[in-house]
TrEMBL record:
PROSITE patterns: S4. Associates with stalled 50S ribosomal subunits. Binds to RqcH, 23S rRNA and the P-site tRNA. Does not require RqcH for association with 50S subunits. InterPro entries: RqcP (IPR025490), S4_RNA-bd (IPR002942), S4_RNA-bd_sf (IPR036986). It comes from Virgibacillus salarius. This is RQC P-site tRNA stabilizing factor. Transmembrane segments: none annotated.
Length: 86
């Protein structure tokens, strides 16, 4: 599944266009490698996303084309959240 689609389906980022912008700015890594919006993600991958002053690391548990809002959090596990001091 494409990275931007996974971020939208899992509701980590609300819109796919926004997910694409974040990826294009170099704020997402997959297993330590810089990611593009078109990068392919699989179950077991580790994503690190920089949201403003926060660095969130998640592990992908599952991939689904569509999920209900209540089930969205089952697609990933938050491994750690760090506050960035700039």
């Amino acid at each position: 599944m494409r990275l931007d689609k996974f971020l939208k389906v899992s509701r980590l980022i609300k819109r796919r266009t926004l997910a694409k912008e974040v990826a294009d700015q170099g704020r997402i890594t997959i297993n330590g490698n810089q990611a593009k919006a078109s990068s392919t993600v699989t179950a077991g991958d580790e994503l690190t996303i920089k949201f403003g002053q926060k660095l969130v690391t998640i592990k992908i548990n599952n991939l689904k084309e569509t999920v209900r809002k209540e089930e969205a959090e089952t697609l990933y596990t938050v491994l750690k959240e760090e506050k960035l001091n700039n």
